[in-house]
Amino acid sequence: MTDDTQPTPEEFADLENLLQYFIEENQEFLSWIGTTVEHIGEGTMTLSVPYDEKLSNKRPTPSGDGRADLHGGIAATLIDTAGGLALRTAMDNPFDARIATINLNVNYLRPAVGDLVATANVIRVGGSVGVSEIMVESTTPDGETREVATGQGAFRIFRPE
């Protein structure tokens, strides 16, 4: 790889590590919330964020105990990020394009009280727009994994001319 060319996936033994490095070096918010690349496949991607009280909203409970819920914006961030990045896995030249969110739909199903894991699947990558569906799961204190949010994103793809 030279300074004047873009890297290609074939140049790296592990695309997950490349993307993790990119997040840590270039995406301060994603790095701050602890975003980790779990899996990358063709047309799919999985990202996670560990539970952290700094990302939570405490609600008063009658007994005063219980773990605080993660802020819904953290799930929305995962939906947006995983959905956009997953599109690159279905493109011939994933590093040649810029991608911007043009529409994001998030449906919250239940409070998240543990680590979050978002899996995005590409629905379609067109010439200028791509669409992904995303499911976010969370682990409950008793160890059960439950769906906490679903989403769909539409993303503008800016390809080089």
Written description of the protein model:
The structure is a single chain. This protein is of the alpha+beta class and 161 residues long. The protein has one domain (15-158): Roll (Thiol Ester Dehydrase, Chain A), CATH 3.10.129. Helix content is 21%, strand content 39%. It is built from three helices and eight strands; from the N terminus they run ααββββαββββ. A six-stranded antiparallel sheet has the order 1-2-6-7-8-5. Strands 3-4 form a two-stranded antiparallel sheet. The model has no long low-confidence stretch (mean pLDDT 89). GO terms for molecular function: hydrolase activity. Keywords: Hydrolase. It holds the Pfam family 4HBT. Residues 70-139 form the Thioesterase domain.
Characterize this entry briefly:
Helices cover 21% and strands 39% of the residues.
Task: Break the fold down into its secondary structure elements and pairings.
Elements: H1 15-26, H2 28-32, E1 36-41, E2 44-49, E3 56-57, E4 69-70, H3 72-88, E5 98-108, E6 116-125, E7 129-139, E8 145-158
Antiparallel strand pairs: 1-2, 2-6, 3-4, 5-8, 6-7, 7-8
Could you say what the CATH topology is called?
A: Thiol Ester Dehydrase, Chain A
User: Mind telling me the C-alpha Rg?
Assistant: 17 Å
Backbone shape? elongated
Strand order of the largest sheet: 1-2-6-7-8-5
Q: Strand-residue fraction?
A: 35-45%
Short descriptors:
Thiol Ester Dehydrase, Chain A, 8 strands, 6-stranded antiparallel sheet, alpha+beta, 3 helices, two-stranded antiparallel ribbon, 161 residues
